[in-house]
Amino acid sequence: MCNILIVEDEATFRRVIVQNLAKRGHQVREVATVADAVSTVLEAPPDLLLLDLNLPDGSGWDVMRALQSREIAVPVIVLSGGVIQPSLLSEFNPMAHLSKPMSLEELFQLVGRVDQTLETTDLERSPH
Asked: How far is CA 27 from CA 4, 13, 23, 79, 81, in A?
């Protein structure tokens, strides 16, 4: 299962996602700011980052810039309530972009893709 960090300042929305992912066996950590997101990833990089773009102390793009500058690569699913500039999507190349309100099922499918990739990588590393 995935180790997921969700960066979302809307507490109710964040709680719903955290509870649903935890029920599916994922380890989920949660933060609400750019500063907390960067420090949490630096302490223990997750397998997947669910990243809101509008945060109280900056944007999700700031989180991705900070990680890139430290050469930390984490798959990112961007969560956004507004229109995203195509240039930013191509600059940061997140694995996916989901518009709010979103289908939880669509989110779970994307998380499942990351989970499958992790399982495949683990199988390739294990001795035969």
From this structure: 6, 17, 10, 19, 25
DSSP H or E segment with residue 52: strand 48-52
CA 40 to chain CA mean position, Å: 12
Average pLDDT over residues 75-93: 88
Q: How long, in residues, is the chain?
A: 128
Longest dimension (CA), the chain: 49
Who contacts 119 (Cβ-Cβ below 8 Å, separation ≥6)? none
| Secondary structure letter of residue 103 according to DSSP | -
pTM, full prediction? 0.89
Q: Nearest-CA neighbor of 76 among 86, 58, 89?
A: 89
Q: What is the pLDDT of residues 8-33, one digit of tens each?
A: 999 999 999 999 999 999 999 999 99
User: What domains are defined for the chain?
Assistant: 3-125 (3.40.50.2300)
